[in-house]
Design a protein that fits this description.
Layout lengths: L2 E3 L5 E5 L2 H4 L12 H6 L17 H15 L3 E5 L2 H4 L9 H16 L3 E7 L5 H4 L8 H17 L5 E6 L1 H9 L11 H24 L5 E13 L4 H23 L5 H9 L10 H5 L6 E13 L8 E4 L14 H15 L4 E5 L8 E2 L2 E2 L2 H19 L4 E7 L18 E3 L6 E3 L1 H12 L1 E3 L1
Parallel strand pairs: 2-3, 2-12, 3-4, 4-5, 5-6, 6-7, 7-9, 9-12
Antiparallel strand pairs: 1-15, 7-8, 10-11, 13-14
Helix pairs in contact: 3-5, 7-9, 8-9, 13-14
InterPro entries: GH, Glyco_hydro_1, Glyco_hydro_1_AS, Glyco_hydro_1_beta-glucosidase
EC number: 3.2.1.21
Family: Belongs to the glycosyl hydrolase 1 family.
Length: 447
C-alpha cells in the first residue's frame, strides 16, 4: 500500500467560525449580527435553524480545546464575533466579549496550539447593516477600529492572522444570489461590496504593519477549479471566468495592485462597474505573508449563454459527491496550487479550509465516516503532490473540528471531525478524527 509522506514542518489543524459554533447570541453584551437577523427570517435557513445555541462553544470552549489537544494539531483557526467585541459595530467596547477570546486563546496556548484568528467570517453587526452595511464606506472605518482593538488585545498571543474569510461569499453569495445574509439580489451592490471588502482588507494589513503586530497576516480565499469541457475558446473563457471570480478578482488587487481586466469588462457587460476612488488600489495593494486557500470542490464545465452570472454550466462526469451535492474533485486542488504559484509567485500557501459534508450516522457511540476519510486522503494526496512539485505549502486545516451551523443549510449538513448531538451538545469523535490524529502524529498516511 503506497505511503504519502509529509514534510516535518507542515502545520496541521482544524477550523471553525464564530457564528457557526459559539451560540450565546444574547449573552454577556453581544450585539445582533446580520446572521441573527437572517436566520430568524422565515424561509431563509432550512428547517428554520439558527445559531442561537449552535455548538454552545461559548460555554464549552475548554472542552473543544481539549479535543484539539487530543487530536494533536499545531494550529486552530477561529473567528472573532465582531458584535461580541463591539455590539453596535463601533462605539462602546464590550469587555466581556474581549475576555471570552482571551480565555479561548490562553487555553489554546496552554495546550501548545497556535491560534489563527480570522477577523471577519461574515457576521457583520446588524447596527452597521442598518446604516448600509458593506455598501457604505463608513463600515470600512468601523472595521479598522475593530481590527485595531483586536490587534491591541491579542498582539503577542496570536501568530497567524486573517482579515476577511471568503470575500466572494460575503459579496456575491450574500448580495447577488441572496442565499446568505443579508440576502440581497443586486449585482452592482455585490460588486461594490467586493471592492469595499478588499479595501477593508488592505487598510487592515497596513494597520497591522504600522502597529508592528507580531506574526503573519494573510487572506482566506475561495478557490475552485473548472476544467474546460473542450478546447473551444468559449469553453475555456467560461472556465477562466469561474476561476477568475473566485481567485483573480480578490487576489489580483491585493498582490498585483489591479483588478483582472477581463473580469472588469465582463461585469460592465452585465451592467456593473467598480466604485474605485483615488487611492483605493494603493490601499488594497499591501504585501501579505500567506494566501489562505479554502477549497472544497471543482468540476468540468462549458459555456452556456445566460447560464448564471458567468454564462457557464457544469458537466458532471461521474464524480462522487458529498452530501451537500458538491463534486469530489481533488485534482482541482492540485491545479489550484499550481495556478496560484504561477500567477502570484512564491507566496506561501496555507490550506485554511478543506473538508467534506457526509451523512453521518451515530451507531453504538461511533460514526464510521469512511467517505470523509477517503475525501481527506484524496485531497491530502493533492497537497503532497504539490509540495513534491515545489509549491510552497506551509499548512493544512481540516474543516471542521465540529459539526456546526452550516449557514443556509442549518444543522442538516455535517462537516465535523467530531459529531455534535445538537440536543445534548455531547461531542463524539468520528472515525475521521482518529484517522486524522494518526496522520498528524505519523506525518504520513497510507492510501
Amino acid at each position: 500500500m503506497p505511503i504519502i509522506q509529509f514534510p516535518k514542518g507542515l502545520k496541521w489543524g482544524t477550523a471553525t467560525a464564530a457564528y457557526q459554533v459559539e451560540g450565546a447570541v444574547s449573552e454577556d453584551g453581544r450585539g445582533l449580527s446580520i446572521w441573527d437577523t437572517f436566520s430568524h427570517t422565515p424561509g431563509k435557513v432550512k428547517n428554520g435553524d439558527n445559531g442561537d445555541i449552535a455548538c454552545d462553544s461559548y460555554h464549552r470552549y475548554a472542552e473543544d480545546v481539549d479535543l484539539l489537544h487530543q487530536l494533536g494539531v499545531n494550529v486552530y483557526r477561529f473567528s472573532v464575533s465582531w458584535s461580541r467585541i463591539y455590539p453596535n459595530g463601533k462605539g462602546e467596547l464590550n469587555p466581556k466579549g474581549v475576555n471570552y477570546y482571551h480565555n479561548l486563546i490562553d487555553k489554546l496556548l496552554e495546550k501548545g496550539i497556535e491560534p489563527m484568528l480570522t477577523l471577519y467570517h461574515w457576521d457583520l453587526p446588524q447596527a452597521l447593516q442598518d446604516d448600509g452595511g458593506w455598501a457604505n464606506r463608513e463600515t470600512i472605518d468601523a472595521f479598522i477600529l475593530y481590527a485595531k482593538t483586536v490587534f491591541n488585545e491579542f498582539n503577542g498571543k496570536v501568530k497567524y492572522w486573517q482579515t476577511i474569510n471568503e470575500p466572494l461569499c460575503a459579496a456575491f453569495l450574500s448580495n447577488y444570489q441572496g442565499v446568505h445574509a443579508p440576502g440581497f439580489q443586486d449585482l452592482q451592490l455585490a460588486v461594490d461590496i467586493s471592492h469595499h471588502l478588499l479595501l477593508a482588507h488592505g487598510r487592515t494589513v497596513r494597520l497591522f504593519r504600522d502597529m508592528r503586530v507580531e506574526g503573519e497576516i494573510g487572506t482566506a480565499t475561495n478557490t475552485t477549479w473548472r476544467e474546460p469541457f473542450s478546447i473551444k475558446a468559449e469553453d475555456m473563457e467560461a472556465c477562466k471566468r469561474e476561476i477568475g471570480l473566485n481567485i483573480d478578482w480578490f487576489l489580483d488587487p491585493i498582490i498585483k495592485g489591479e483588478y483582472p481586466g477581463y473580469m472588469v469588462e465582463w461585469f460592465k457587460k452585465k451592467g456593473a462597474e467598480l466604485p474605485i476612488k483615488e487611492g483605493d488600489l494603493e490601499a488594497i495593494h499591501q504585501p501579505i505573508d500567506f494566501i489562505g486557500v479554502n477549497y472544497y470542490s471543482g468540476n468540468i464545465a462549458r459555456y452556456k449563454k445566460d447560464a448564471g452570472l458567468l454564462d457557464i454550466e457544469n458537466i458532471e462526469i461521474d464524480y462522487d459527491k458529498t452530501y451537500i451535492e458538491w463534486p469530489i474533485y481533488a485534482d482541482g486542488l492540485y491545479k489550484v496550487f499550481h495556478y496560484l504559484a504561477e500567477r502570484y509567485g512564491d507566496i506561501p500557501l496555507f490550506v485554511t479550509e478543506n473538508g467534506a459534508c457526509c451523512i453521518d450516522q451515530l451507531s453504538e457511540g461511533r460514526v464510521n465516516d469512511q467517505d470523509r476519510i477517503k475525501y481527506y486522503q484524496q485531497h491530502l494526496t493533492a497537497v503532497s503532490r504539490a509540495i513534491e512539485s515545489g509549491i510552497n505549502i506551509t499548512g493544512y486545516l481540516a474543516w471542521s473540528l465540529l459539526d456546526n451551523f452550516e449557514w443556509a443549510e442549518g444543522y442538516g449538513k455535517r462537516f465535523g471531525l467530531v459529531y455534535v448531538d445538537f440536543h445534548t451538545m455531547e461531542r463524539i469523535k468520528k472515525d475521521s478524527y482518529y484517522w486524522y490524529k494518526k496522520v498528524i502524529a505519523n506525518g504520513w498516511m497510507e492510501i
